[in-house]
From TrEMBL:
Gene3D superfamilies from the UniProt entry: 3.40.50.12370
Organism, scientific name: Mucilaginibacter aquariorum
Protein name, per record: Universal stress protein
Family per similarity comment: Belongs to the universal stress protein A family.
Domain UspA, residue spans: 2-143
UniProt cross-references to Pfam families, sorted A to Z: Usp
Length: 280
């Protein structure tokens, strides 16, 4: 059975990702795993027995609090209660702990809330940006201000280097949701622009799914983020998809562009990232 992992620190900001994960797990008939990563330091003077007792007390208390927290989220939703389990994982680094748990337990997606504060760095924060760059499991970044809506339209931004393989992953995500898929490429003036109708017909045969094409000319007076922002405003997707490359990703270029801090549209649109490692 497919597993959707959502991580929480039991804060109000994390509720958006939990609500999103509940809806996604229900749509995909998946098991929901609610994860809390913790780490307890052992006082030098404590015996192993004292430390084990303290750890068990902490875990029992945290599970009880986590259970009440999730029930409260459910009570505020008009969604059927699905099977879920609570998990605690001990790791000195929260980001690595989440990625490690997701990989070890063969989770299909990781959901995490982001705190939109206007700047891209503030929006994604250390845990989220760390997961995007390091996790082998796809990461769903859900803005804490995101209102729960039907996931019915996916915008996939591509540099066209490996779009066939990437589309297979996107279609796998979209098909159970019956979501439409739009592939968008921002091209430079010297790049060849493919025929929209021919490309759409070809893609439908290749991935057995309807994919619409959005060609957009690159405006070199803009940051790349501005061009994608314009496409997002036009398309009005319920989810934006990016593939991050091991060496130099589209996301890296957006994140570290000198003008990127001026834009905050990611704070309004959930983002799904796939980490594209060499050989994958």
């Amino acid at each position: 059975m497919e597993k959707i992992l959502v991580t929480t620190d039991q804060s109000d900001n994390s509720k958006a990702a939990i609500r999103y994960a509940i809806k996604l797990a229900e749509a995909r008939n998946a098991e929901l795993v609610v994860l809390h990563v913790y780490h307890l330091l052992k006082p030098f003077k404590w015996s192993e027995h004292q430390y084990e007792q303290y750890t068990q007390t902490f875990k029992d208390k945290t599970i009880a609090e986590l259970s009440a927290f999730i029930k409260a989220v459910y009570n505020g939703m008009d969604e059927p209660k699905i099977n879920y389990k609570l998990a605690l994982y001990d790791h000195v680094d929260v980001t690595d702990g989440i990625a490690e748990y997701a990989r070890a337990h063969q989770c299909s997606y990781i959901c995490i809330s982001t705190r939109g504060a206007g700047a891209v760095e503030k929006l994604f924060g250390t845990h989220t940006s760390g997961l995007i760059s390091r996790s082998e499991v796809p990461v769903l970044c859900i803005p804490s201000t995101c209102h729960l809506k039907d996931l019915n339209h996916i915008l996939y931004a591509t540099d066209m280097t490996d779009y066939k393989n990437e589309l297979e992953k996107i279609v796998d995500f979209a098909r159970p949701l019956h979501a439409s898929v739009e592939m968008m490429h921002v091209s430079y003036l010297y790049e060849f622009v493919f025929d929209k109708q021919l490309m759409e017909a070809s893609l439908k045969k290749q991935v057995n799914y309807t994919v619409s094409i959005h060609n957009r000319k690159r405006d070199i007076t803009n940051a790349l983020l501005e061009d994608i922002d314009a496409a997002v405003k036009l398309s009005r997707p319920s989810l934006l998809v990016l593939f991050t490359h091991h060496s130099r990703s589209v996301f890296d270029k957006l994140l570290f562009d000198s003008n990127a801090e001026k834009y905050s549209f990611y704070g309004k649109v959930p983002l799904l990232t796939f980490n594209k490692r060499p050989g994958k």
